[in-house]
Please model this.
Amino acid sequence: MKNLHFKDFFWNSDLTCTGGYDAIIQYLNDGKRTCKEVEDFMKARASIEEKYAKDLLGLSKKVCGHNEMNTLKRSLDVFKLQMEHVSLSHLQLAQSMREEAKKLEEFREKQKEVRKKLEQQMDALHKQRSTHFKKTMDSKKTYEQKCRDKEEADQNVNRNTNTNNTKHIEKLYSKAQQAKHNAEEADRLYHQNVTALGKVRDEWLREHVNACEMFEKQSVERINFLRNTVWTHLNQLSQQCVTSDELYEEVRKSLEQCHVQEDIEHFVNLRRTGDKPPAPVLYENFYSGQRSPTAPPSRLPPPVIRRGALPDPTHSSQDGIVYSTAQDAGYSVIHY
Model:
């Protein structure tokens, strides 16, 4: 398929009409607006990434598993460290986005300066063309009027050819000669203006073609630049996902080294207090001083034990004193 170009499809049949040129300028203005919108989008996205990165960095600094120990503690430490790295990678992403937005801004400003000079030149040509066209059309009207005046003067001379009034005929002839001179002068001026307008038109045609080619070149550059900018932006986002996944993988690897039984044994060995339970508390009888090896202490009060008859007294001596019972008739309590 044959390529279409600005210079072939934005003409107008009216010499003073700027419809085709205006359509191109509107298209360029829309493209400039698109560049600004993409630029603003990337700046806003960079601000979002920066805020997210700072919030995530602050979150990674908070205590997480401070009281944990052994392999799980190592995994949690790796988790916090990698979250910090993820936040830093998002900060880097925000900076990269701002750099791309800056490039787009510079590109847009560069195109703006080139367009400004070219538009000023074309506006001047349009004004010059319109001025010469108006001047030419005015001279054409004057020329046509002078031609009509000449014809009318000639007709008056012809109509009065047979009159005997010589003075009147000379007067009509003089007017006819003046009308002819005026018509010839108007014709010369009209022809001069047409020639000047032709030169202006030729210059405008060349500059219009050059402007179309330049504007088309700018449009091609803008579309390519925007396409590449958005492509780069998406690559940055994809790379951020890859980077984050790589950092998360470090956490997963650390969790693979986290052994539940090892952590349990580590805690046991570190904080063990003894391998024997306390002995059972036995019941102790307040009166007998005996302990029941099996029965646990009862919460009921101890049973009342009734005492038996008093035992018979036994004979004993102390310091030569003899105690005896009073059974015989010659009872005496003390014997010497």
Summary: Residues 19-266 form a domain with the Substrate Binding Domain Of Dnak; Chain:A; Domain 2 fold (CATH 1.20.1270.60).
